[in-house]
Write a structure and sequence with these properties.
Radius of gyration: 18 Å
Structural class: mainly alpha
Number of strands: 0
Number of helices: 6
Shape: elongated
Helix content: over 70%
Number of domains: 1
Distance between the termini: 12 Å
Length: 154
């Protein structure tokens, strides 16, 4: 994969990486928004969402890397689609942690006098620091791999 990449300019690799990151962020925000809406309405739907994310994890990663070869290079939208296909694998650890949090944790902390910053510092940062760091590293690696696959198959 390195010889074809060495003939392409770095700008193309950066543009494809930015498109992949954009698709990943948009898909993650969509899934996290659905998680927040479903968690308030009916917990069984959250189980369905987690199951869907788990079922799409490995096929999504494989399709993200193979997408430029299967669909032809579609420019920026192809890279955005690659990022969206990575989202199920990226969100699985975060959804697991968010579902393990007791429903009244934030309300209890606010009732005990914690403000927004204290709630963030003392409750949410310790709960989400590890998964967010792991997901961030995974997303960075997958964004680079997807961009390299897209540039190599141009």
């Amino acid at each position: 994969m390195l010889p074809p990449l060495s003939t392409h300019p770095l700008g193309t690799l950066v543009a494809d990486g930015c498109g992949t990151a954009l698709g990943l962020v948009m898909a993650c925000m969509l899934v996290l928004g659905a998680q927040a809406l479903l968690h308030r309405a009916w917990p069984a739907r959250c189980v369905l969402l987690r199951g869907l994310m788990l079922a799409l994890m490995l096929p999504g990663l494989a399709l993200a890397l193979l997408w430029p070869g299967l669909a032809g290079h579609g420019g920026g939208m192809g890279s955005v689609a690659q990022g969206a296909l990575v989202a199920p694998a990226a969100l699985w650890p975060l959804l697991r942690v968010l579902d393990a949090v007791p429903p009244g944790l934030s309300r209890t902390a606010r009732g005990l006098g914690a403000g927004r910053l204290a709630l963030l510092r003392l409750v949410w940062r310790p709960l989400l620091a590890g998964p967010v760091a792991g997901v961030g590293a995974f997303c960075a690696v997958m964004t680079v791999l997807c961009a390299m696959a897209a540039v190599a198959l141009q």
